[in-house]
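so i finally got all the pieces together for this one. its two components total, 907 residues if u count the protein bits. some of the lines might not be protein, just check the labels. i wanna see the whole assembly predicted at once instead of chain by chain like last time, that was a mess tbh
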Amino acid sequence: MLRRLMERVSVTDVVMWLVGGALVALIVVGSIATLATGRYTAGHWFDFVIFGLAQGSIYALIAMGYTMVYGVLRMINFAHSEVFMSGPYTAYYVAAALNASGFLDRQPILSLLIVFLVAMATSTAIAVLLERIAYRPLRFAPRLIPLITAIGASFFLQYTFKGLYGSGFQAYPVVKMLEGEWRIGAFRILKIQVVVILAAALLMAALYTFVQRTRVGKAIRAVSEDKAVAALMGIDIDRMIATTFVIGGMSAGAAGVLYALMFKQVNFYMGFIPGIKAFTSAVLGGIGNIPGAMLGGVFLGLFESAGPILFLDGLGVRAPYQLKDAIAFTMLVLVLIFRPTGILGERLAVKKA
Amino acid sequence: MIQSRFGWQQAVKIGLIGGIAGILVSLTGMVEMFNQRHIISNVISMGQTLLLLVVMFIGYLAARRTIRPGPLWALANSLIAGLMVGGLLALLVIVGSLVNLRAVFINASPVLYEILTFKQGTQPGALLLLAGGGLCGGLAGLFYLLPGLFRRIMMMALGGVVMTGVLQDLLRITFTAWGPLAIINRWLFTPNGLTTTGAGSLFILIAAITYFWAQKGSALQTGLRRLPPTGQRALRVIGLLLLIFLLLALPQVLGLFLSEVLTIVGLYVLMGLGLNIVLGLAGLFDLGYVAFFAIGAYTMAVLTSPELGFFHLSFWEALPFAVLMGVVAGVLLGVPVLKMRGDYLAIVTLGFGEIVRLFALSDFLRPWLGGSQGIAKIPKAFIGGFEFAGPQQIYYLLLVGCLLAGFISLRLKDSRLGRAWMAMREDEDVAQAMGIDLVKTKLLAFATGAAFSALGGAIFASKLTSVYPHSFNVMISINVVCLIIVGGMGSIPGVIVGAIALVGLPELLREFAEYRLLVYGAALVVMMLNKPEGLMPEARRRLELHEAEAEAGE
């Protein structure tokens, strides 16, 4: 039996497990040390967790777009970060106008709804244009070509929006209804965080239902599994791919407004980092897998938020929050060492590149 | 779509796209900024040229896509498309006069409207735009109808004049640096734009050369080919010697600024050669390539800088260590990702690049790596008494580095290892079945690529005499990936061409800094849509890509 085991396991596997084990050991030791110092109260940890959840939900929403497009087109849509940015940036002007006229204060819910709609519409428009102009002609090209096109489109959109709206940071108007916090004993939670988490959860649930329970969703799943056979079954591939981009665009636009409400400002460059984080979440959860993207986003948010303090503070690292992105990526590597296809694995048919 | 008569709907659609492009170009501020530069002094500015180019291109496209044969229909279509573009721009002007667009689009300034309406006010301006658009569209249609040779001549000549106008600053500097050419300066350039006589003569000159080449060019080439082998070899040797002389003399001829550009291009060529092995030959999608660059640079910094005071090595003593660290890092990166496929590999390598940058930036490692302040006072390289101080000397360091890397790549490509890499790129499982040890091959690919990058990093550190973590961001990795694909994946001359196109040109056009990346992004998209195999591809790759298209077309 040992021999059978030795045949299946290679040297590289052992080395990788050693690396993974070392990382896990580091994490455990660090966590224990941090918790032992007792420097952070339960209230602190709750703060970190809630913040992580909120940020993670936003990543999850954006990751939906990445993962769905990957499912149907097998490509990483680098320009999705700009789809994410275009919505709230355009909706900012609507929000500012609503604020200036006082409508925002009188009818906050309706105003927010309008802002959301504008953002989602803009993001969807950009996503559909992207697909039509940049990706459709390259549908049968080798994988790297659409990727470079996506990178080019990303730059183009970033700087077009910079040229149109300017390079400054625009502060989103304050919605009084969303300010403030709730306290339960030693724990406090910001209202805006609750809104973000709930809104994101709602949208993700809606999306998941759409993909799992409707005909269009089924068609999209069919296209992700095998385009040629789906076409044979009478599914309009172009339509379905466009629908996928529409869904991705809508969720990115909504995520953008939530991001803007939480972080209170927009800028032409705001899509870049969340885009990378969202893509990491999608990979973490298993690329092509929608529940995976959601889970990956939430996990990534939690790792980023609670991870640095939990893992590194105990090890005596100064200013651990600077390394939060490093922690996020290290956790990704860790997960991929032990589960090479992500947490929930790939639901795609295993095709060779 | 049912085309009636001569397919004017298509022309309208094309015109619409052109009109939106024109509006975008205006609202992002490009027209306004470019307007300050004149192509031909006091005759036409760059901003106006830009709009003109848009209209003419759209008109040309509309004429080309005319369904119904016959010159009249093509002309009509191009007119329609031109009218659409002019019309949309006129709409912008009219709306702009009624509504304060500036609240949202910060570049919708009064100056823009002035430019668009030719300083005639809103109403006449709008009409002028409409008429002008139609006229230019029509001209483009006429242009399309010209016989092929005339078209080529006109395009080359016009293109040459416009390019000279765009690059006037650089050319002026280059010509001033070299005495005899200074007279060209006076004849060709005014402080802002070309002289009319200069532009005219340049136009005629280029037209004549194009005409001559068209008539006699192929004859020349066959004549050359018919030479006896000794003659051919002699020509080739002469060509090589000329090339070597040119390469050696280049920084002296071009002056300080252009040499600086050359060194940056050289660095990217070096990195490109390394990534060419990892991505081009071995098919490993590495998006974190800047990590090795950073490691090479930081190793050089830590080992040589007196600021940290740990070691006091010279440039040459530290160089092998920098490369060694790069190799070690390559292997360290390679091990966890051995089992990862395509896109997972991409994100993990991207993560690795970011991790290196973040650790360099962190306070945690500040005592050793300098944190956000970086490490300064890195000494330059010395040979005997000669110091590699400025860009003109560092160029030679990079030249040697690139030649070395190029030589190694070339030899590796045709070796067993190179073929193993290419087999791995095509299909990993089959390669493994053929007996290739995937582990060793992958690690060697990572290590070699990392070595080149670390070499570049070390030279970079010496060139800047200081390293900051901000210089090692993910954009550099993305840039290198783009340049080897635009240049042609897997081909070594392709790397050089890609570096010149994607790194050299933006550096040269730094004055347009605002819109560099906009154009860069658009250029990438256009390139991938039209020439996905790159500018100078391997012959096999071009066959692969276009064969697939031909099959798909059928």
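Residues 347-353 of chain A have pLDDT under 50 and may be disordered.
Strands of chain A lie at 170-171, 181-184, 187-190, 265-266.
anyway lmk what u think
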